[in-house]
Amino acid sequence: MALAALSDRDPIPCGEAEGLVWRRNRPVALAPLAGWFADAQDMAFAHPFARFPFDAEEWEELLTRPSPAFFYADKDGVPFAHFGLRPNDDAVHLCFLVMDPARRGEGLARPLVRLAAAAGRALLPGSERMTLNVSTGNLRAERLYLSLGFRRNGWAEEGMFQMERPLGLQPPWDRP
Fold first, then answer.
1. Which residue segments constitute the domains of the chain, with CATH numbers given?
2. pLDDT confidence tier of residue 156, bands split at 50, 70 and 90
3. Which of 38, 84, 146, 168 would be a feasible disulfide site paired with 68, CB 3.0-4.6 Å?
4. Whether residue 171 has pLDDT greater than 70
5. Which of 99, 132, 136, 131 shows the shortest CA–CA distance to 20?
6. How large is the C-alpha radius of gyration of the chain?
7. What is the mean pLDDT of the chain?
8. Which residues of 11-42 are buried (b: 16+ CB within 10 A; e: fewer)?
9. Angle in degrees, 0-180, between the axes of helices 139-147 and 109-123, rounded to the nearest 10
């Protein structure tokens, strides 16, 4: 099933990887997402053009667009992160990634990115790469993605650079 073809009439796609579950954010649920932006910088790292504090109407409009498709990541039945996936040439593009600040430091970031990759492989079979944009200055995210095999491949929008890696299981998603 192509990601761009997902509609609200389709069964809600979901999947599992490493004990985590991804599920489509349909019907759109703004909570708990609304509480995950502690400050303007948190908001800018997830959505550089969004207004802070969280604007429910703005996010409702974003989350109801046909692309990207948005997902919650759950651990033990509790959402801890939210992300979007969209087709991008021969790639799946990971976007609008945000994690519950109360769950940071629990070792969930690497499994979360691998979970998003599993969702991308399931929803966009044949995609060869995963791409994502990182805000300049978000060194924590850049280090995470580098440790998972992503490499810089150019500039995206103003204040952001793009990273990519093969979408398959190899090379390994963690460096030894």
1. 15-128 (3.40.630.30)
2. confident
3. 84
4. no
5. 99
6. 15
7. 89
8. eebeeebeebbbbbbbeeeeeebeebbeeeeb
9. 60
Q: Is residue 145 within 8 Å of 113, Cβ to Cβ?
A: yes
CA–CA gap between residue 119 and residue 25 (Å, rounded): 13
For residue 110, what pLDDT is reported? 94
Whether the per-residue pLDDT at 174 is higher than 90: the answer is no
State whether residue 127 is helix, strand or coil: coil
Q: Are strands 151-155 and 129-135 parallel, antiparallel or unpaired?
A: unpaired
Taking 60 as the threshold, does the pLDDT of residue 6 lie above it? no
The sign of the CA dihedral 114, 115, 119, 121 is: positive
Instruction: Please give the pLDDT value at position 23.
Output: 94
What is the rounded average pLDDT of the residues 48-73? 93
How far is it, in rounded angstroms, from Cα 38 to Cα 35? 7
53 preceded by a cis bond (ω within 30 of 0): yes
